[in-house]
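Homework help board

Subject: predicted structure for assignment chain

Our instructor gave us this sequence and asked us to write out the predicted structure in token form, then describe one feature. I got the tokens but I'm not sure how to describe them. Can anyone check?
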Amino acid sequence: MTDDAYLVLLSGPAATLGVPPAAVGELACMETPAVRAWLDAQGVTAASPRLRLLPPEETAAIPEDAERLPVPLGEEELSRVRHHAAPRDVARLEEELLAYRSCADGRDALLARALAAGVPAHRVAELTGEDLAAVKAVAR
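My token output:
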């Protein structure tokens, strides 16, 4: 696994990986000379349906022959990418986890539901601000 997110040009069944960059709103990296030059070299625009953005934990799924470019994302940008890349039911739970920060009522039940739905423990900790050990303890 890498620490960088990747812009990738995909086609065929792999085109469902990641998210279109435009779906997550403004990203500082999209305006950098390196990204602009890479897009020009590939003959695509930032709005191309083949262009996808993958968070670091999904980069192992990039096909070997796919054109790719590592891009730096800020913490908030990466959170938006992960949110848009999550399946709808998981995305809904992630929204609840974000709302959790302001209300601890039903804490254990919400954490258990998120873990049971497949939200990784590190992501639950990131979204809630809870200690990772406390999140893992709920799973036991």
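Reply (TA_rk): Your tokens look well-formed. For the description, you could write something like this. Helices lie at 33-42, 75-85, 88-100, 107-116, 121-128, 132-139. That's the kind of observation they're looking for.
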